[in-house]
Amino acid sequence: MRVGIDVGGTFTDLALVDAASRLWTLKVASTPADPAQAILAGLRQLLSLAGVEPYQVDYLGHGTTVATNAIIERRGAKTGLVTTAGFKDLLEIRRQKRPHLYDLFEPKPVPLVPGDLRLEIVERTHADGSIERPLDPSEVVSAGDTLARQGVEAVAVVFLHSYIEPRPEQTAAAILRERHPDLYVSASHEVLPEFREFERLSTTVCNAYLGPLMARYLRHLVGGVADLGCRVAPHVMQSNGGIASAATAAELPIVTLYSGPSAGVIGAWNAAAAAGASGLITFDMGGTSTDVCLIQDGVPSVSAQREVAGYPVKQPMVGVQSVGAGGGSIASLDSGGHLQVGPRSAGATPGPACYGRGGSQPTVTDADLVLGRLGASQLLAGGLELKEGLARAAIDRHVAASRKQTTEAAAAAIVQIVDANVARAIRGITVQVGHDPRAATLVAFGGAGPLHAAAVARLLDVKHVLVPPAPGILCALGLLAADVRADFATSRLLDTGDVAGIENTFLALERRARSWLEREVRGVGELSRSVDARYVGQNHELTVPVPEGALDERTLTEVGNRFHHAHEAAYGYAAGDQRVQIVTLRVRATHRTGSVPTSSAHSTTPTGPRSRRRVYLEETGFVDCPVVLRGDLARDQALTGPAIVEQMDATTLVPSDARAHVDTVGNLRIELGER
């Protein structure tokens, strides 16, 4: 029995697959103050629903937002920094580049480590690895004692050029761990052994800031799962699209920053691959935000660096772009009277006004309900019934009255704005980086994704939409399809002709990777190589794969050719006569877990609509629209718009000029017509 549990801002999604590939799903309200509370309550319900005993569960995957929320809300540990003399203020100085070039007074994010908790050590290593000033252990002892007296829970250790010569940093970390065993020590050679000092410092500090919090959370969750009777500890989704043990996540919490969104991308890829679809744009619209990602040739785009609340984090991550546009996004008027939607969200508590839980601000969900796109009699997770009167009152009070609009017109404007915000985010990962979205398939999931998919596709001139069988639970299913994975890297400035230097560095990385696989999955797995390369003199790199087999001059020539091709694809030109320099070598360790079924129960014979209701369509206004239950649709059954397709975890809108059909694996495929 395999269980996946993804915690979102509004709902916690659960999926269980048994040995016969039968699927059970459940959606419960999240408990942001204690995410484990919803996880454990939902797990009890799911096991009862499937008739499964806790001890029968042999795998438990978990997608979490604990790390991301802790940085955004600044709820991490009190953290200290021990660094090379002269560099303690690098957290303040940051990079010269500003988000807005001409805004000289734009406030910078407040450093996660205040100035009085940043201590310097007189030591120095050169960029070539030679040591100019050896480390004095007594200085480390003094710094550690000072920070401990000030009540820090975590310490980041970041020495200059430790990516190439880690021994001084290793010594300092060992002293701190031995003398202060209760401190969480985050050393940069363990977190990010790559060059560029500020990014390495920022990433290591973020990891330290998260360490104690994530360790406590995972201990609580592991204990709760064990008390429930499960014999397995949770595995945690990482930002790179792979899973790892709870122990790994506790040791290196920075790898979980984009845990949930990455699970969604893997789930979408798994569902589309089963249907033979390729060239995908994933569209995950939940209660709080929307996450989008481009998948080409079966491979999700990858980002080497992201900013979280203004703090740079350098880790391999699935290339997800997030925007504050979800079902719970709040609609309001700015100081000029213009309507805006998001990024503020009603979240799980109190939730949209229509939940009847005390929320008074109008949200996207309220607008969808007023427009008939959601049914007033439709039950959500936990038997929650939507209340249209409360939705209307909120929209009237906060939007319609000031704009002198009808409730319906204001609701339509809210929906149009949130759809435009999502389309803008998708253009950012496609058009703005040289990819044409028009030939892609939009894979819509999350609780709100299928309802807004057709309109978003229209804005992008995308003709094909795919809605998986369990779209509202797809992130949980992605946790079941994800491989066990870890990335290892080190920076070395090497010429592509240095065969021995490159091979020796790769072998050292592979020893670390095999050791990790042995600890995680008893050594079963595969290794792949890649390099970050650039033309000599450039300041940014591109990652290219290294061909399998023995490393020799021909292999490195092919690496150079691949770099030229990647450079031309990214920037429109290649300088084939220029020397290619390798700056970082990477090894990825992967243990394959295989795909999981995404199909749910369907009727064996076509069934007509269960009901009808008035639904607002942008192209026609309100129309009488048939409402079909997803479970009533048979394989290969066709559906002509307009139509509403309802299921427990999501609602899909098929517009008036579209046709839909259920494919052989249960996906709902929507083909949009020309306007």
Please name the defining characteristics of this protein.
675 residues, alpha+beta, Nucleotidyltransferase, domain 5, Rossmann fold, 16 helices, 32% helix
SSE topology:
Layout: E1 2-7, E2 11-17, E3 23-29, H1 35-50, E4 59-63, H2 66-72, E5 79-84, H3 90-93, E6 118-121, E7 124-125, E8 131-133, H4 137-149, E9 154-158, H5 167-179, E10 184-187, H6 188-191, H7 197-228, E11 235-237, E12 243-245, H8 246-251, H9 259-274, E13 280-285, E14 290-296, E15 299-300, E16 302-308, E17 311-318, E18 321-323, E19 329-333, E20 339-345, H10 364-370, H11 388-403, H12 407-429, E21 441-445, H13 449-460, E22 464-467, H14 474-481, E23 484-495, H15 499-521, E24 526-535, E25 542-545, H16 553-571, E26 580-591, E27 611-617, E28 621-629, E29 638-640, E30 643-646, E31 651-654, E32 658-662, E33 668-672
Parallel strand pairs: 1-4, 4-11, 5-6, 5-9, 9-10, 13-21, 21-22, 28-30
Antiparallel strand pairs: 1-2, 2-3, 7-8, 11-12, 13-14, 14-15, 14-18, 16-17, 19-20, 22-33, 23-26, 24-25, 24-26, 27-28, 29-32, 30-31, 32-33
